[in-house]
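# nightly structure sweep
# worker-07 picked up a monomer target from the shared queue
# config: single-sequence mode, recycle default, output format = structure tokens
# input follows
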Amino acid sequence: MGTHDYDKVSFPVTYEAHAPKDIKFKALKQTKEMNCVELFKVLGEDQKLKKFLPIIADSPVYPVFYDAKRTVLSLPPIINSDSTKISLNTKNVFIEITGTDLTKCQIVLAILCAQFSEHCEGKDKFTVEPVEVIYEDDGKKLVTPCLDIETFEVEIEYICRLLGIQLTPDQINKASVKMGLTPIKSSDTSKLVKFEVSAVRPDILHACDIAEEIGIGYGFNNIPMVYPPTNTVGAFIPENKFTDLMRHELAQQGYIESLTCALVSIKENYENLRYKADLEEAI
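# output follows
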């Protein structure tokens, strides 16, 4: 992910691959231009960035973004260029996302665009301009970001059954608005509810996710507590209850609990020790 000052970028932008020694630019927080071989030696001492270097370090070519003037924008997924960095004077932002999973890239881009658009001024508030991506191998064109709205139509009875309470369509719609969903007219208003879900909610994939959102919006604390339809009553095992009390007391005395795997194979270790002792005795 990279964010750049749009007004400092000359379009079109190209995504290329070159040998490390052939990519030369001034990276963020660096004092001079370096090729990637030199840059990686410097970043190898950086506590935050050095853990990302192995992602491309062994590759014969590195991915790089160039603009129309052959200015390096970024070296994904390592670091951006200093030439297009965002400053207090930035008015427009250009966002680039790279990855091996197109769906995840589109989700991240949609969320970032939505968040950045909140800072647009005046009549341009919540304005996002699309970019056309052209694949070199097959000429495929893709317009991003994808801000398509998904719609979900769910049975009222299904929502009520999952939550264990009876809700009217008005109560469901009121709860959905609290969770950022947009109620729209369904095909059968007496049995179904329908919602529009924005592109920034990729976590909503199924009707059960809608039911969960309704439950949160309604308030789980507002659902009456009832005994389950069984003949048993749950309770702590006495040993567990005692150890929990001991754990709290010891923690209050300043002790730190540490759970290790040292005693997982105690039986096997015990048998090995017995075998070793018998062997030494026989010798």
